[in-house]
């Protein structure tokens, strides 16, 4: 919360501005996606990237197995146990004090990210199960060579969701993500007369109007897959790309990355950095390939997020330990 004070005729007036009133420089990247939809999309990208970064990409590990102590195929990053360190390198650089966790401490970095990004265990398990199905069908392929929303659409069915309404909402979100990444903010400039772009726009428009027939062998799925892959694998002057491009166009990639970086802050005290910020940042950086990020772009996004919280903290007079100072 930001409080602005001004004096008029010796009268002190206060104007309260919420943190959300700070407009993001990347806000227009996905105008059709809500904050919760962006978080879910960012989380799916994070889980896919983490599971693809280890020696055994895209393996499934459920929360129920974790609770029973089952250690089969854990990703070295996503399931690294959290340990209390004497000091955080990031906090030390930022001049922040170390604070104890407000809530029950998460056992792993993956669990911490799920909680920080407000993703339910049911959603988390569903995403991981879908990635297992993707891995089984495309053995040896890494996540950056796939269009993740397309693969999820093909792998998850209505029976994987609590209700038909939730499934349809999830399907619409993924269509809007494809629209944002391939049509609105593509990595490479797009010819307005591109036949595949026009076809994808038509498919998305119809899919948002009424539920699509998404069977593996359905005509609708074949048509969607064909145009999406044609757009995602475009390259400059006919060169062969090493990765497909669907979430690395500017400014969509920065907006998604900003959403991930916001997990570094306490859910209950939005100007306070969490104790495990080093582990969280290490996890977030696994998305760099998929999002087309590098050190410079990371610094730009992180600087904006820190500045946003700093202004809110300074203006509201918050000086508690662990908060932006």
Number of helices: 13
Q: What is the percent of helical residues?
A: 40-55%
Quickly give the structural class: mainly alpha
Largest β sheet strand count, sense and barrel closure: 2 strands, antiparallel
Question: Averaged pLDDT, please?
Answer: 79
Descriptive account of the structure:
With 325 residues, the protein is mainly alpha-helical. It has helices at residues 35-52, 63-67, 89-94, 109-116, 121-137, 148-155, 164-184, 195-209, 219-232, 252-261, 277-284, 288-291, 295-315; strands at residues 2-8, 11-17. A two-stranded antiparallel ribbon has the order 1-2. Helix 6 (148-155) packs antiparallel against helix 7, helix 7 packs antiparallel against helix 8 and helix 8 crosses helix 9. The longest helix is centred in the middle third of the chain and has 21 residues, at 164-184. The radius of gyration is 21 Å and the shape is globular.
Topology, element by element:
Elements: E1 2-8, E2 11-17, H1 35-52, H2 63-67, H3 89-94, H4 109-116, H5 121-137, H6 148-155, H7 164-184, H8 195-209, H9 219-232, H10 252-261, H11 277-284, H12 288-291, H13 295-315
Antiparallel strand pairs: 1-2
Helix pairs in contact: 1-10, 6-7, 7-8, 8-9, 10-13
Summarize the structure.
By secondary structure, the protein is mainly alpha-helical. The protein has helices at 35-52, 63-67, 89-94, 109-116, 121-137, 148-155, 164-184, 195-209, 219-232, 252-261, 277-284, 288-291, 295-315; strands spanning 2-8, 11-17.
């Amino acid at each position: 919360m930001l409080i602005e004070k001004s004096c008029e005729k010796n009268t002190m007036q206060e104007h309260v501005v919420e943190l959300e009133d700070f407009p993001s420089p990347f806000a227009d990247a996905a105008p059709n996606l809500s904050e919760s939809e962006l978080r879910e999309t960012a989380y799916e990208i994070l889980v896919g990237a983490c599971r693809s970064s280890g020696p055994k990409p895209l393996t499934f590990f459920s929360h129920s197995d974790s609770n029973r102590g089952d250690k089969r195929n854990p990703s070295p990053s996503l399931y690294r146990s959290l340990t209390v360190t004497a000091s955080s390198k990031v906090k030390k650089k930022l001049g922040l004090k170390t604070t104890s966790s407000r809530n029950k401490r998460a056992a792993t970095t993956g669990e911490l990210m799920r909680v920080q990004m407000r993703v339910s265990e049911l959603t988390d398990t569903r995403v991981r199960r879908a990635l297992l199905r993707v891995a089984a069908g495309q053995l040896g392929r890494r996540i950056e060579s796939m269009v993740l929303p397309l693969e999820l659409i093909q792998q998850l069915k209505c029976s994987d969701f609590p209700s038909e309404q939730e499934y349809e909402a999830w399907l619409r979100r993924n269509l809007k993500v494809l629209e944002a990444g391939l049509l609105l903010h593509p990595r490479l400039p797009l010819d307005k007369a591109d036949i595949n772009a026009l076809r994808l726009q038509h498919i998305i428009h119809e899919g948002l109007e009424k539920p699509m027939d998404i069977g593996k062998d359905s005509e609708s799925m074949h048509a969607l897959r064909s145009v999406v892959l044609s757009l995602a694998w475009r390259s400059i002057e006919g060169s062969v790309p090493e990765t497909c491009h669907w979430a690395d166009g500017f400014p969509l990639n920065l907006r998604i990355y900003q959403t991930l970086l916001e997990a570094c802050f306490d859910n209950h005290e939005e100007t306070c950095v969490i104790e495990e910020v080093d582990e969280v940042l290490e996890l977030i950086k696994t998305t760099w390939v998929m999002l087309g990020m590098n050190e410079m772009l990371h610094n730009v996004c992180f600087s904006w997020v820190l500045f946003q919280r700093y202004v809110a903290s300074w203006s509201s007079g918050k000086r508690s330990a662990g908060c932006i100072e």
